Amino acid sequence: MNNTNKWEICFNAYTKECTRIAIFRESLKAIGIKFKISILFSLILFGFCLYSSIYSAYKKDWDYYYIYLGATILFEFISLVLIIKAQSIYTKEEYSEYELSQVPPEDNKDQKARDLKFHRTLSLNEIKKSHIEGILEILNARILISENSGLGIEKIIGFLVTFSISILVATMKNLDIKVIALIGIAGMCFFIFIYMIIKLTPNKREQLYELKYFLTIFANEERQQ
């Protein structure tokens, strides 16, 4: 099997089998039905309380606003804790102590679980340290292409964001400062949640750099065996 085929295996393993969404799906399989219902219930309550807090601020119903805002923060926190706990259960049940000892020291963006799954996929497809150098050459070329593409799309997205903000400002022009501030506080909870959803699918450039990181760890692990 040539380097191009090896590259295809590595690239597909990373982009299809080792994404944050894939790990989340695997985590849901590792937990019981009660745990799944708890996650779903907390997410529904988070959405309901978020909407209610913004609506209460718009109607200047301050007593309900503070109640719903507190509940929004609470259920957002509970949802995140439950999701992290589900991933932890999956990781401990799926991988051996030796495999767990080889993961990256940080766990940014679920890197530990995804790195373990990636390494296992490479081992099952008989990818060896001797193949990594050729794969990295192709990967470096892809990174160069990625760094010089997509600039037009980024400009369009920037324009759309600016346009949306201007519409929002015009819409809220008739509201007083207190209402705007309190809606903004509730909105922050929403944007934090949306940010975490967006990070489930990082941009192509970020993916390529992380793939390079995972391959380097894999090669180093084989060197130590």
Tell me about this structure.
By secondary structure, this protein is mainly α. It is built from 10 helices and no strands. Helix 3 runs antiparallel to helix 9 (177-198), helix 4 packs parallel to helix 9 and helix 7 (129-147) packs antiparallel against helix 10 (204-224). The chain is flat and about 65 Å long.
Number of DSSP strands?
0
Structural class category = mainly alpha
**Helix segment tally:** 10
Low-confidence parts, pLDDT < 50 over ≥5 residues? none
- Helix fraction bin: over 70%
What order do the SSEs take from the amino end to the carboxyl end, as H and E? HHHHHHHHHH
Tell me the major beta sheet: none
Gyration radius (Cα, Å) is 22 Å
Query: How big a fraction of the residues is strand?
Result: under 5%
Distance between the ends: 24 Å
Shape: flat
* Average pLDDT taken over every residue: 77
